[in-house]
Amino acid sequence: MRCNTLTRRQHGKGMVLIAVLWMVAALSVIVIGVSRSVREESRVVSRARQDVEALALGDAAIQIVLQGMSSKSVLTGRAEKIEVVFRGVPMTVQVMPLNGLIDINSAPVQLLARLYALAGGLSAEGAESLAQATVVARERTDSKGGRAAFEATEDLLQVPGVEYGLYARLSRLITADLRGGGKVNPLAAPLEVLTVLAGGNVSVASRIAADREAGLVGIDTTALDATFIDSTTVRRFRIEARVPMAEGAWFRISRNVDLGSRARSGVPWHTFSSSHRFEPVGSKEF
Known about the structure:
Blueprint: H1 2-70, E1 80-86, E2 89-97, E3 102-103, H2 109-119, H3 124-138, H4 164-170, E4 174-175, H5 191-197, H6 202-213, E5 236-244, E6 250-258, E7 270-279
Parallel strand pairs: 3-4
Antiparallel strand pairs: 1-2, 2-5, 5-6, 6-7
């Protein structure tokens, strides 16, 4: 009888020990989970603070460049890069006249077809069909009986056949804000647009881009399709600042501005669209 009682006591102590061990294990899991959550929240807060700081720095650099542009009597007609240092942070600001991009509201169907084929990766037949659909979409009548047109480049996604992957490949090459004749200024065009104008000849496009980067005057553009070229100076620009961040990453701020109209604040330019995004290590500069 005494042996049985002792056995039951030992068994009871063993169960208590197991319960304590389970409680310790459960508490350890909770503590690890809370610690991990706190660390993750700290990283999120730190990243958000860095993004806000980078956005402020980029905006400051853009404002400095715009002040210099507004003081000139003649605006630039070519893409150029300007180095700006603000609060000890060196930044590169790119100034690009909007007629260096392809205007989806006025580009001829042939140019749109080239864009979809060469930059979008569509077949010749698919590119031609989509170009026709784009023209139909922008020429439709709105509720007031006028031409609807595209209000933003994102509206291209409303065209049947334009999927997000295609739009992502084209988004930095197009504009809906130019209000021009649909032709492109090769001295302002990025390399991908120059390649479209060159009918897919990358070497020709690269040579023109390199000559422009070197600041050469009288750049030879005769190898481009003259049907789509117009070097008229415009007052609408895309201004982009690239701000360095920790570990080699970047923060890009983009502003589309009109130097032909004043903002309500009184500054001699009007910002009509803006965007910003984080760019990982190794991302393309401009």
